[in-house]
Amino acid sequence: MYAVAYLCSKLGKVGRDCLRSSGSTIPSGCSTIFLVTAVVGNVIEAGADLGGMAAAHNEIVLIPISGMVVILGVSVLS
Fold first, then answer.
1. 31: which residues sit within 8 A by CB, 6+ positions away?
2. Tens digit of pLDDT for each residue in 52-69?
3. Would you say the pTM of this structure is higher than 0.70?
4. Are 8 and 42 spatial neighbours (Cβ–Cβ below 8 Å)?
5. What does the DSSP assignment read for 4-43?
6. What contacts 63, CB < 8 A, 6 or more positions away?
7. Which of 12, 60, 66, 69 could cross-link with 54 by S-S, CB 3.0 to 4.6 Å?
């Protein structure tokens, strides 16, 4: 998981330049689809991480997993 997050951060730094430079060869609709699928994939991955952390915390603290997801999400955002 660390390797995927590291790779995503590195690709995010050059992603804008890659899309800009490949604009002449890739239609804009395709690059938009690529961007949307990347965002959706990252949101799903973040949700899975929050769910896993909540399940692990549920073993120690007896708070329902759905409530722990909200608590962890707010703590990560702040």
1. 19, 22, 23
2. 999 999 999 989 999 999
3. no
4. yes
5. HHHHHHHHHHHHHHHHHHGGGTS-HHHHHHHHHHHHHHHH
6. 57, 71
7. 69
